Amino acid sequence: MKTVKLTAAVGVVMFAAVVGFAQDLPPGTHSVDDHSAENAASAQIAEAEKLLEHGDFAGAEAKLTILAGNHPKDARVQYDLGFAADHNEHDEVAAKAYAAAIAADDSLAEPKVALGLLDARAGRSQKAKDELLAAANTQMAPAELRGRAFRALASLDDGEDPIGAQNALFAALKLTPETPADVLLGAELSEQMGEPALAETAFRRALTLTPEDTEATAGLAHTLAQQKKLDEADTVVTQGLKEHPGDPRLVAQAVPIYAAENKASAAIPMMVELRASDAKFAANAEMTKVLAHLYETQNDEASAEKLYLELAAKTPNDPALLDDLGSAEVRLEKYAQAQAVLAKAFAMRKEFDDDDAWGETAEHLAFSASKNKDPKTSLMALAARSTVLPDSPSSLFLEAISHDALHQVKEARASYKAFLAVAGGKFPDQEFEAKHRLVALEHEH
Prior knowledge:
The protein is mainly alpha-helical. It is built from 24 helices and no strands.
């Protein structure tokens, strides 16, 4: 899921509501004193808000904490306290103050937006959505504030519910003018909804508005690659990297594009450098797998194995990862290790995405077992494979040499013949061996 880009309010919103602090006056009190308590409180609020305007959030919070205690039902004081505490990262204090402001005056949208943003940052998505929707639907609120609430809702749905996010974005645009961020979000949503051509147009428009936006550059490169426009995607991402060397988003897009163009020698150094400088990128499992696969295209199995071992230590029950690791170890001729790893993956049938993938792992296990001089395990794995995949030249040859190793003459002959019937001259070394063994097996019973 995409990270939600939500921030706290940037300016102090001053409430126009009258603050009612006056109490019943005792008999004989002169009218000149009627508003003394109210005036004192208003002066204190004004002083606190001046501190907020000057960025002294700690000083403002201290003053507002006292005021809020004395006037728990005053929406303006509670909101100001929440605003100050929010900036001081005192989230619990801020949340309580915003909630108190809403309880004091439900017609105000400001504390609803602020509380929604706070809950979104804390990962309380559903609660945040409810609060932001309430703010967006506060009809008497300023259009700018309602638009902000709708945009925050769109950001929350981004990556999870693109249709919902798009509807929220459209609602925001009905209230307020479009921004470059709106264009970028619209492009991302089009991409998520499987409309790469629309996404491409929107990403290009976003770059016209903000040419230095690396997120838009990465998005355009990605959607071009999706449409198999590799030359254009390469141009976009390469230019982006010239202007923003090592940018993680651009590197992440450049790598699969370069890999698709067989430019592993260009992609590998970029990834290695970024992994060394960016811990978050280094911890990204998908990008680590991509790097391992790139090493394999360069026949650097040792580097690939190292990365697969690193990943397997973190996710030991991922059968696809174990298959990658075992296959790399086969190519490194570590047959005993490979067989153990592939046997573990083979035993996790329910964890595979589909039966075909499990069948391929069964064949990999059969090959590693054969190389490890364990023909019984090889035949067991091939029998399992045959339940989900049709025979292939490689599986038939493995079957033949395994029967042969176990001196199962009749079965070995049948498998060698079956292999030769489908090989069609594409496997000269194995075909030569099969013919040779058939001649030798004629003298065995």
